Structures are given as structure tokens and as C-alpha cells.
């Protein structure tokens, strides 16, 4: 849905696995590949090199339910141009696509790299979080557990977990400590 709203997209092609993706031939150049890490038959990580053999100049952005630093580094080493958490906001997805299509790399909001590999201006993360997520982030910064945050904000523990995951994705953080550090550096919390 997000890609269909992106003004520059003429066509979105889908494949269920790496083999099917290799057989995609729509008669025109493929501009971008969005690749899920969890693919049947061949994993997304292993699929990066395979796809780059056929689509050598096509940037690949990995989508994953986990924002594990080791997986991000592995994807980057294999040739991926970007890495996004599946819960990324539509703004972050579009920012990643724009960055990658302009020759840059995008490995989460906090580590977006420009085309020459130098850090972009520090992104404004304030619009990436809802008011409730800011409350959860502030409580996280105090070192409170999900259970305590849930009690304080009158939420279920599962809802807090969902907010924490969204916060980590929005900030491009791998864990709560990193999210707190990024948020403090950006002035999102005191």
C-alpha cells in the first residue's frame, strides 16, 4: 500500500521466494528490491548475493521483524543497501526508499548514510513517535519494566511490548538502552 502511494512507482512485482524473484522479467529495469529476511527455501540473507548476480545494480532493502545488529551487519556485508524493521512507519519506509534510490544506504533512522557513506544531518525523530510512545519511552528511560510501565499508564503489558517494539524501530535502536541513548541525544527525553 505504501509503495502504491509513492508517486514514482509505476509497478510493484511480487515473488514468494528467491527462485521466483530470479524469474521475474517484466521487460524493464528493476529499480529496487524489498526482501524479507524470512523467505522459504533460501533465506533473505543468502538471497542477497543470489539476487545481486542477476540484478547487479539494483539496491536491496531488507525487511525484518527483528532489528538485530548482527543481522544488519551481515546484510550490509552481503550487499544490502538498507535494512528496515517491519513495524517501520510509512515515513521511514519512504525515507529509506528515497535514500537508497539516490545511491545512499539506510540501516535504520539513527544510522542513515548518505550516498558517499557519510552521516546525513541528524534526522528529526520527533514526528516518528505517538504521544503514547513518548510516554512509554520516558518510562523506559527510567529503567522501568514493561509490567511497571503497563501499570503506570493503565495499559496491558502486551500493548506496552508493542509500543516498545515500535519505539525501537522508529529510533533504529537494537535495544532499550540504545533507544534511550538515541532519544536523549535527539532531545526527545530529558
Shape: elongated
Q: Helix-strand pattern, N to C?
A: HHEHEHEHHHHH
CATH structural architecture of the largest domain: 3-Layer(aba) Sandwich
How many discrete structural domains?
Answer: 2
What gyration radius follows from the Cα positions, in whole Å? Answer: 18 Å
CATH-level-4 superfamily name of the largest domain? Response regulator
Distance between the termini: 36 Å
Strand order of the largest sheet: 1-2-3
Strand-helix topology:
Blueprint: H1 2-5, H2 18-22, E1 33-36, H3 44-54, E2 60-64, H4 69-78, E3 82-85, H5 90-101, H6 131-141, H7 146-153, H8 157-171, H9 176-185
Parallel strand pairs: 1-2, 2-3
Can you give me a brief rundown of this structure?
The chain is mainly alpha-helical.
Description:
This protein is mainly alpha-helical. The chain has two domains: 110 residues, Response regulator (Rossmann fold); 60 residues, Arc Repressor Mutant, subunit A, CATH 1.10.10.10. The protein is 45% helix and 7% strand. It has a three-stranded parallel sheet with strand order 1-2-3, with helices on both faces. Strand 2, helix 4 and strand 3 form a beta-alpha-beta unit. The relative contact order is 0.10. About 7% of the residues have low confidence.
Amino acid at each position: 500500500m505504501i509503495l502504491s502511494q509513492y508517486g514514482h512507482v509505476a509497478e510493484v512485482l511480487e515473488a514468494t521466494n528467491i527462485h521466483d524473484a530470479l524469474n521475474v522479467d517484466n521487460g524493464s529495469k528493476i529499480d529496487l528490491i524489498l526482501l524479507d529476511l524470512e523467505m522459504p527455501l533460501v533465506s533473505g540473507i543468502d538471497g542477497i548475493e543470489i539476487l545481486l548476480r542477476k540484478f547487479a545494480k539494483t539496491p536491496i532493502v531488507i525487511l525484518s521483524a527483528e532489528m538485530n545488529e548482527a543481522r544488519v551487519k551481515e546484510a550490509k556485508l552481503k550487499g544490502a543497501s538498507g535494512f528496515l524493521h517491519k513495524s517501520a512507519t510509512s515515513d521511514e519506509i519512504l525515507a529509506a526508499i528515497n535514500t537508497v534510490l539516490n545511491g545512499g544506504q539506510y540501516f535504520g533512522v539513527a544510522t542513515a548514510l548518505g550516498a558517499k557513506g557519510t552521516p546525513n544531518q541528524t534526522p528529526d525523530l520527533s514526528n516518528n513517535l505517538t504521544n503514547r510512545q513518548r510516554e512509554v519511552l520516558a518510562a523506559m528511560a527510567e529503567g522501568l519494566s514493561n509490567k511497571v510501565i503497563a501499570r503506570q499508564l493503565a495499559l496491558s503489558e502486551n500493548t506496552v511490548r508493542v509500543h516498545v517494539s515500535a519505539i525501537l524501530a522508529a529510533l533504529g535502536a537494537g535495544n532499550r538502552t540504545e533507544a534511550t541513548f538515541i532519544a536523549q541525544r535527539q532531545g526527545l527525553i530529558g
